[in-house]
Write a structure and sequence with these properties.
Length: 210
């Protein structure tokens, strides 16, 4: 009879491995399970061994990001939604700083690379909606602008979650994104209001204004 797997044990081992990497502890079978209450066999049960754990660890970061992005409520304002997706990206990094460090470490393979690409595609779709509504110019490349938006979020997330800046620095996202979207064709006043409404890291799934 197949053993029933507990998803909590899987998450526990992934969180433990990420924390050990952050604190530069050697990650071995024994050190990984030390103090967790599970045996070394759990690594094989849930990941097929250490190689499988490394792949799953990086993938878990993108899995949690996907859940966070999906929780963002879309509104009639695509520019607000674009900023809200960026805020959700930052919030995910702040809540999962250990996994965030591993997500972009190409030394570890991803189990599903398409899942990572989908994070960017969420932003692309928001840019496309903004173009269709007339907020952005017709000549704006959705992938290029989405990448630039991601760069802003990633930079702030890295500097706050893994670097030297305090959380207050996240407020810089508003003027930077506003300038970016104005350069894409949005009107200054309307753009500022949209970005201010959307850019609120720490409030996942917040309902858009009625």
């Amino acid at each position: 009879m197949a053993r029933v797997k507990d998803p909590k044990v899987r998450s526990q081992l992934l969180d433990r491995a990420a924390q050990m990497l952050r604190t530069r502890q050697p990650v071995t079978l024994r050190s990984l399970v030390a103090g967790t209450g599970v045996s070394t066999m759990a690594v094989y049960t849930y990941f097929g061994g250490m190689d499988g754990l490394w792949k799953a660890l990086r993938q878990e970061g993108f899995t949690r990001l996907a859940v966070r992005l999906a929780a963002v409520s879309m509104s009639a304002d695509p520019v607000r939604d674009l900023a809200a997706l960026g805020a959700a990206y930052v919030s995910n990094a702040l809540e999962n700083p250990d996994l965030y460090r591993v997500m972009f470490d190409a030394d570890f393979e991803l189990e599903d690379a398409a899942a990572a690409d989908e994070s960017l595609h969420c932003l692309v779709r928001a840019v496309e909606r903004a173009k269709e509504s007339g907020r952005f110019r017709e000549d704006v490349d959705p992938l290029e602008l989405a990448t630039q938006s991601w760069t802003v979020g990633h930079g702030l997330a890295s500097l706050v979650a893994t670097g030297p800046l305090p959380r207050e620095a996240l407020s810089n996202g508003v003027p930077v994104l506003t300038a970016l979207y104005i350069s894409a064709g949005d009107s200054p006043d309307r753009c500022r209001r949209s970005v201010e409404d959307g850019w609120r890291p720490g409030t996942p799934g917040r309902n858009p204004p009625s």
